[in-house]
Amino acid sequence: MPYTTRRRLVTSAVAVALGATALTACGSGSGDSETESGPVSLTYWTWTPGMDKVVDLWNKGPGKKDQITVTVKKQASGDTLVTKILTSHKAGKAPDLVQAEYQALPTLVSNDALADISKNVGDAKDRFADGVWQQTTLGTDAVYAVPQDIGPMMFYYREDLFKEYGLTVPTTWDEFAQTARKLKKAAPDKDLTTFSANDSGLFAGLAQQAGAKWWTTSGDQWKVSINDAATQKVAKFWGGLVEEGAIDNQPMYTPAWNKALNTGKQIAWVSAVWAPGTLTTAAPDAKGKWAMAPLPQWSANENRTGSWGGSSTAVTTDSGHQEAAAKFAAWLNTDSDALNALAKESGIYPAAKNAQTSGAFLKPPAYFSNQADFYSKAAEIAETTAPSAWGPNVNVAYTTFKDAFGAAAKSKSDFGGALDKMQDDTVADMKKQGFEVAE
Predict the structure, then answer these.
(1) Which PANTHER family does this UniProt record tie to the protein (predicted)?
(2) Is a pLDDT exceeding 70 seen at residue 18?
(3) What's the pTM value of the predicted model, to 2 decimals?
């Protein structure tokens, strides 16, 4: 990696340190002070289904009035899109707008691919929970994207089977462990849940809830703390339950897992607000039998949740119309008509607080027709989202998690070694790329 790139990465590294002071944005910001005049055409890369129908509302309404037209270009998601954005940016040909998962923002910002749009969207801050907004500011006074959808984590359980086995919905993780053991004793053929080593995002969200800060900075260096005390606590907890056989150790999203949910062999699931869609497909016979509650806490006086999923709308530094692009990004994620369309056409759970209990969210999901307050409760939980601390090589950490934790879960061995492997591989990759890493 060229030294100039490394220097930008080190400088912008402070962006992910929680509570960091403001820095000069590393983006070129060439469009920050521009005044748009005449027709403007923007291109938006996104993987969200139905986005073209949502964007039509803009093109026929506010966009038409402001002479700003947006064209949707459907893309793949995840690392594939990040790579494509960086490749296009290197050639100076990135689109005006991109959809970006929160954990990808540090990578894109570090590579000078995203513009600081704080002058154009800063007043949108109050529309979002602090922990959500922080993910798009990276802890600075800059704003690198507007939150679009979020995945606050929750606890899902079979109401009928909890009643049958005399179980109480756990409010702490200690109670969760006791519930798992009580169920296993009463019904050896059933499991409260499973630890899935193919879901790195789930583990990251659980660590986030516990207070983990995987990537921060120390002076002008990155500091990687994937095996910090908070994450060790999470790993030890789940590893202990797997080792003693109190919960299952099989991965999620397999035919066997679907069958376990559908037949009541697995009677609870630690998931996120989007779980109803998954349950509708995985466990159709259990419709109306599941309920949702807040995630168990590490101590009775705490009240916070982690995130599993979510994305934002960002403006690139290559855009020649950053002001216009930022105007669209703000509209897309704060306007009531746009948010209702996103919910209807794309099935997202909006990051904007005002949309979480209105429009499509006035009624519970059809699968949870038995829980009338599903979305009002979800909104309360979303408000407690803990801050996150993402870094520039989340993909490496996630890949190692799947390999190391997968082996540990399969053999029911100590998760501590797997966590250390995750730490070591992440640090080694950062050094290989030329990052300054504090020891």
Answers:
(1) ARABINOSE-BINDING PROTEIN-RELATED (PTHR43649), POLYGALACTURONAN_RHAMNOGALACTURONAN-BINDING PROTEIN YTCQ (PTHR43649:SF33)
(2) no
(3) 0.89
